[in-house]
Amino acid sequence: MDRRPPHHPHSFLYEHSLSLATTLILAAWIILYSLSSPATHWGSFFGNAVADWSGVLVMVIATKYLYEKGSAESRRPRGRAMPPLESWLRDHSLGIFLLITGAGWVIAYIHMNSEARWGQVVGNIVSEWTQTFGVLFMTKKLRERHSKAV
User: What is the reported pTM?
Assistant: First the structure.
C-alpha cells in the first residue's frame, strides 16, 4: 500500500522562487549602483555585483530551459526524436544562447566608453559570460570528483 501523501501542485512562487529571488537581488544591485557613485568603494562593489548576479540569473534560468550535450552539469532534455538539425540545436542550445548573448554584450561593450559608469559593468558582464561559457565547455570533457557524472 502506498503511504505517500497525495501530490499537491506547487504554487507559482514555490516553483520559481530561485529565479524570482535572483531577479530581485539583481534588481536591488542595479538600483544601488544607479544611486551610488562608481568612484566610491561601495559604488564599485555594486557595479561588480550587477555583473556577478547577472551571471547567476542567466545560470539559473538558462540551465532550467536549455541543454548542452556532454556537459555533466547540464539538464537532460526529455521528449521525442527530432530531425538532425533540430536535435543538434536542442543539444547545444545552452552554448548557442551563451554565444549569441555574449556576442551582444561584446558589441555593446565595444560601442561604450569602457571607463564610463555602465561601461565598466558591461565589461564585467562580458567577463562573466566568457567565464560561464568556459565552464560549460570544460564540463563537456573534464570531471571533478563527487560531481554529477554523465
Answer: 0.79
Compute the half-sphere exposure of residue 60: CA atoms within 13 Å on the CB side of its CA.
16
User: What pLDDT was estimated at residue 26?
Assistant: 97
pLDDT of residue 89: 87
Q: Residue 2 falls within a domain, yes or no?
A: no
Non-local CB neighbours of 30 within 8 Å, separated by 6+ positions: 50
Say if 124 falls within a structural domain: yes
pLDDT of residue 96: 92
Q: What does the CA dihedral 134, 140, 146, 150 come to, rounded to 10 degrees?
A: 150
Total domains in the chain come to: 1
The confidence score (pLDDT) of residue 105 equals 96
Ramachandran quadrant class, 146 (left: phi over 0; alpha: psi -120 to 50; beta: rest)? left
Cell readout for 145 is 570528483
In a domain, 6, yes or no: no
Q: What span, in angstroms and rounded, lies between the C-alpha atoms of 65 and 74?
A: 10
Residues of the chain with pLDDT under 70: 1-8, 72-77, 148-150
Domain residue limits at 119: 12-138
